[in-house]
Amino acid sequence: MNHEAPLAEFLGLTFNLSNVLMITVASAIVFLIAFISTRALAMKPTGMQNFMEWIMDFVRNIIKSNMDWKTGGSFHILGITLIMYVAISNFLGLPFAITYDHYLWWKSPTADPIVTMTLAVMVIALTHYYGIRMKGFSEYGKDFFRPMGFLFPLKIIEEFANTLTLGLRLYGNIYAGEILLGLLAGSLAAGFWGHLAAVIPTLAWLGFSVFIGAIQAFIFVMLTMVYMAHKVSSDH
Amino acid sequence: MFTLDAFVLGAGGFSEGDILFQLAMFLILLFLLKKFAWGPLMGIMKQREDHIAGEIEAAERSRTEAKQQLEEQRQLLKEARQDAQELIENARKQGDAQREEIILAARAESERMKEATLREIETEKDQAVAALREQVATLSVLVASKVIEKELTVEEQQQLINETIAKAGDLR
């Protein structure tokens, strides 16, 4: 697991080329799945359209459990895209990891804190943006002093804590999963008996990682909507 | 973030370019999916929703209509039944009246016929009496002429009378 990240300088910015590759791959896969399954739309849905509609309803229910649909409806598309992108990203690192010349190229993009923190900060920034847009600046500002004025410092800390936990929870789960997979596949599987011993735990951990990947995508979107509801709904 | 980096296991150095790249890719993905996938899908879902709502409404409407028509038909049936009852009642009444009339007419007719027959019998009787009277006269004249023609013994006379009577009987 001592692989280097393939770094590159471009326009004065440092890019992790592995992240760039995997972000692109994940986005492409999400787009292709969504694009292909919504080509032949029909009033009576079949095959993939059913699946897509199920995802839509799933996200709709997540939003509905946090706020009323009138305000929550505008976050529907954000929620669907987020849950699919995070889920696909989580799954990408499961089947294999590709290292080339000591550089780790193929992994889950969500197994890097930069990526997950970017998503988390984006989500929190969006909650603040919509909080101001839907309730007005003064109402938004007053929310920091509710229910008690002296809670203001805690409220400020809460915002940063939310951001950190949202991003690092996802990162930690996926990264730990990949580390363990790497250990099972790489270090333990040495020699015939090592291979034999590694098969069953690897299979079990792969299944569990699929489960964790789906759960983490769900949790990420759920928390996004919880924070969003916190900012945009007027009743606390 | 910079200090965080030192503590996080496996973080391959801080690469600020990734932040921009991830952000840009996610926004592009969001935009593309909205345009090519979620938009049309939401459209079709809305369309289905509207369709179902319309169908339910139509079903509701036709049910009300059917109910109304059923009520109408029931009313019509009731009326028809009433009409039929009335017709039967009328026919029966008419039949009764006709029967009475026919009986009355028959009775009158029979009365009339009886009268006529009685009258005829009376006339016949009168005629017969008149005819007898005439015969008796004729016979008397005959007898008288016979008497004048011939002196008769008592036996002869008796015989003659008998003959005459027999003749008269034959004449009748």
UniProtKB/TrEMBL annotation, chain A:
According to its UniProt entry, this protein's organism is Jeotgalibacillus alimentarius
- Name of the protein this chain belongs to: ATP synthase subunit a
> Which residues does UniProt assign to the signal peptide?
none
Q: Where are the transmembrane segments?
A: 20-42, 74-94, 114-132, 179-200, 206-229
What keyword terms does UniProt attach to this protein?
Answer: ATP synthesis, Cell membrane, CF(0), Hydrogen ion transport, Ion transport, Membrane, Transmembrane, Transmembrane helix, Transport
Which Gene Ontology cellular component annotation is one that this UniProt entry carries?
plasma membrane
**Biological-process GO terms, alphabetical:** proton motive force-driven plasma membrane ATP synthesis
**What does the function comment of this entry state?**
Key component of the proton channel; it plays a direct role in the translocation of protons across the membrane.
Give the highest taxon in the source lineage: Bacteria
Major localization class? membrane
InterPro entries, A to Z: ATP_syn_F0_a_bact/chloroplast, ATP_synth_F0_asu, ATP_synth_F0_asu_AS, F0_ATP_A_sf
How this chain sits in the membrane, per its record, is: Multi-pass membrane protein
Question: Where does this polypeptide localize?
Answer: Cell membrane; Membrane
Return the HAMAP family for the record. Answer: ATP_synth_a_bact (MF_01393)
- Transit peptide recorded as keyword: no
From TrEMBL, chain B:
Coiled coil start-end: 56-127
Cell compartment(s), UniProt: Cell membrane; Endomembrane system
Q: Which UniProt keywords apply?
A: ATP synthesis, Cell membrane, CF(0), Coiled coil, Hydrogen ion transport, Ion transport, Membrane, Transmembrane, Transmembrane helix, Transport
A UniProt-annotated Pfam family = ATP-synt_B
Instruction: List residues traversing the bilayer.
Output: 20-38
Q: How does it sit in the membrane?
A: Single-pass membrane protein
Main localization, broad class: membrane
Function according to Swiss-Prot or TrEMBL:
Component of the F(0) channel, it forms part of the peripheral stalk, linking F(1) to F(0).
Q: How does it assemble?
A: F-type ATPases have 2 components, F(1) - the catalytic core - and F(0) - the membrane proton channel. F(1) has five subunits: alpha(3), beta(3), gamma(1), delta(1), epsilon(1). F(0) has three main subunits: a(1), b(2) and c(10-14). The alpha and beta chains form an alternating ring which encloses part of the gamma chain. F(1) is attached to F(0) by a central stalk formed by the gamma and epsilon chains, while a peripheral stalk is formed by the delta and b chains.
Annotated family: Belongs to the ATPase B chain family.
In terms of PANTHER family, this protein maps to: ATP SYNTHASE SUBUNIT B, ATP SYNTHASE SUBUNIT B', CHLOROPLASTIC
Q: What is this protein called?
A: ATP synthase subunit b
